[in-house]
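Person: I keep going back and forth on a fold encoding question. Show me how you would write down a chain together with its backbone fold. Please set it down just below, with no commentary around it:
Helper:
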Amino acid sequence: MPAFQPVRGMRDLLPEDAALLNYIVCKARETACLFGYKEVVTPVVESYELLSAKSGEEIRSRMFVFKDLGNRTVALRPEFTASIARLATTTLRNEPKPLRLFSVGSVYRYDEPQRGRYREFWQSNFELVGSARPEADAEVILLTDSLLRAVGLQSYAFKLGNVGVLRAILSQEGVDEKTQNMILQLMDKKEYDEAFKLVKPEKCRALLSELLELKAPDASSTVEKMREKVKGYTEAEAAAYNLAEVLRLVTEGGCNVQTVEPTFARGLEYYTGMIFEVYVPQLEIALGGGGRYDRLIEVFGGEPTPAVGVAHGIDRIALALQMQEKTVEPKHGKKVMVIPVNEQVKSEALKLAMQLRSAGVPTEFEVMRRRVAKALEDADRRRIDYAVIIGEKELRAKTVTLRDMAKRLQETVPIQALAEKIMHEA
C-alpha cells in the first residue's frame, strides 16, 4: 500500500514550523490587544453566496466550493472580510462604532502551489468598522507595522495607493462597474495593455497611462503629482487628497511608506478607497495587505457603513523570517525528564512528574522503560535540560538526583525543593 502524502497545496507543519507559526499568531494577538481589537471566531465553511458576492472573479474561480448534505452550495472561506461583514450586519449590528475585530485561522484558495503560496494558509485579520476617516486607514497600516516589528522582521516596505482614484476616473468617463472590476483585476496582475483595451474613452486611457508612468523621488511627491494629474475629476481629487492625508498620518505615526503607486489595484472587488501591501526584498509576493471597503456591509443587507481592514499572511511572514535567519526561542523554560530507576518507583516518579507540571515546569516522563544510561542518552539527543533520576534509596530520603544535561553535573536535591530549584536555574 503506498504511503499517503498531503493533498497537493496542503502541508504538514512539523514542530519547528508550528512553533514559528504560533509565535507569529501570539504576536498578532498581542498586537490586537494593544490596538483594542476583540477576537471573533467565524466558521471555516460559509455560504457560497456570501463569499462570492464581492470577492472578485479571480477569488471566485479559486474557491473550494461544494454541496453539503442539505444540497446547499457552500465554500471554504478564501479570506475573513466577508464573514466579518456578515457579523456586522447581523449579530453585531447594534454594537457601538467603531467595531474593532480580530480573527486568525486558516483560509483556502485553489492557487498554483509555489514558494509562499499554498492552498491552505494562515492569516491574521483586523477589521475596523464604522469610521470613514483617514485616521482609520492609517491605523491598519500602523498596526501592520507594529506587528512586523514585534515578530522581528527586517527591511520590509509598504506600498500605498487609493483604488477610489481609478474608480472615480472610470466612473466619470462612463465606464460601468462590471467593466471597472475587469480593468482593476487586470491591473492587479500587471496586465496593463489588456486592461487599457477595455477603456474606450481616449482621454481616460491616456490619463491612466500617465498615472502608470508617473515617477517621483518619494511617496509624498508621488501623491502631489497624482493630485495634479487628476484635476477635473472631482471624486478622484477627493480620493487623492484622502491618500495624502493617510500618508501624512502614517508618516507622523512613525511608519515609513516607501512607495505610492497611482495605478495600484488589488484583486478583491469590494475595495473602494485606500489600499496597501507590505513586502520584503527576499519575496516577490506580499506579506499582507488590505484597504477600505465602504459598500460591502450594505451589499450584505446592513446600513451604509464605512470599513477598513488588513490581512497578514502568517505563512509568508514565517517564510520571510526564516529567509532572514530569524530564530524563535520558545518561552517554555527548562525542559525536564523524569527517569525512574526501576518498576518499584514508577508510580512515585509519575506522581513527581505531575507535581512538576503543576508547578509550571515542562516535564516528560520516561515511558519506554529504558535503563537509566539509555534514557539519559535519549534526553541528551532531544535537548532535555535536566534529568530527574528517582530510585528507591532516594525516595526513602525524600530526595532525587538532578542532572544538568549540558554541564554533565548532578546533585542530590530534596523533592520539596526540586521545582523551585529548576525554575531558579532557568
Observations:
- The first helix runs from residue 15 to 35.
- The first strand starts at residue 38 and ends at 39.
- The mean pLDDT is 94.
